[in-house]
């Protein structure tokens, strides 16, 4: 097989950086170019391990700037694109939707336009668009999302991701672009930005801060370890069918209170000075339009591509807690910057009773 030359958009974020680790750790015959705007969520520390590796290259680039996209990428050798770059946090999309439309819709559009030029030169093998199960809306107690579930997004974030999914689909049907979309459930693991439920709870436990649980804590998410997700994306890029979509999940539904309690129990063991951490749980105002339940049916990727997750939840959540305990400088730097201002603001705006 010829060398893979993968362009990773949003590769300095949570899942994108894990994807870079997955690929570079498993293959010599590959080169990766990460493009990233380095928003509040992008962090070059996530990629530090590779900075002197000849297989790795980083370009600071805003995908919402079409001129910049075309100019900065014109001389980069690319055979595959893994498109992760997005605004990703639902609460932020409620407080300020505009960036979500710009990046997730217009940014994806420019990346597709750029990909079309590679396709015209017969250089592009695949454009993998990373999307979310939130485009399908909210489930009640039964059932699970399949690839044919109708779209029904409820937040500005999920609506913007749905918009990009539709554009990707259209570029297959209209221009024959070799696209594939993956829709996955909630990820967790190393490098997870501390605004999201799992890292937020771990870090608040460590700081003795309240653990804000929205509403009653009964909302359900289907938790996917980021390393399993990245292996699945790589599999889809190599063996998926163009024009298709694949759901990725590991049948691992938990309600939010179960997640918070599990983290508290792990923290009691690993940070006994703060025990019992459950005393920090604080029920706060619910998220507006809060989707009740997500659940992925991964039968298609399992049967058609033979995908199986490698990790069990119990070991992966403990690994995640350990990662945060072992990487204090990483999160201390984030918590001491602008993020803290946002957190206090969000806490006041969205979370207070
Ligand atoms: P993240 O917020 O951690 O990272 C996003 C990255 O995109 C950051 O590095 C950021 O700097 C970059 N970025 C943002 N705007 C940009 C722009 N205009 N130009 C260039 N780069 C830009 O997000 P994540 O959790 O790693 O999510 C990655 C992708 O996976 C997103 O498309 C998201 O919708 C999707 N997804 C995430 C989850 C999850 O649980 N985190 C689940 C399903 C799907
Ligand atoms: O389902 C996939 C999606 O998962 C991705 O597309 C998104 O990019 C990703 O951010 C995530 O969205 P969620 O809104 O599900 O994740 P979040 O971690 O923000 O919240 C998870 C659940 O926890 C949700 O029901 C809201 C709740 N929550 C969240 C926070 C931050 C709380 O109860 N308290 C909190 O402080």
TrEMBL record:
Protein family according to the UniProt entry: Belongs to the NAD(P)-dependent epimerase/dehydratase family. dTDP-glucose dehydratase subfamily.
EC number(s)?
Answer: 4.2.1.46
- InterPro entries in the cross-refs: dTDP_Gluc_deHydtase, NAD(P)-bd_dom, NAD(P)-bd_dom_sf
What is a single Pfam family found in this protein's UniProt entry? GDP_Man_Dehyd
The cofactors named for this UniProt entry are: NAD(+)
> Reaction(s) catalyzed by this protein?
dTDP-alpha-D-glucose = dTDP-4-dehydro-6-deoxy-alpha-D-glucose + H2O
User: What keywords tag this UniProt record?
Assistant: Lyase, NAD
Q: What class of enzyme is it?
A: lyase
The terms under GO molecular function for this entry are: dTDP-glucose 4,6-dehydratase activity
Q: Record keywords: Transmembrane helix included?
A: no
Its recorded name reads dTDP-glucose 4,6-dehydratase
Can you give the residue ranges of the NAD(P)-binding domain?
Answer: 7-320
GO BP of this protein: nucleotide-sugar metabolic process
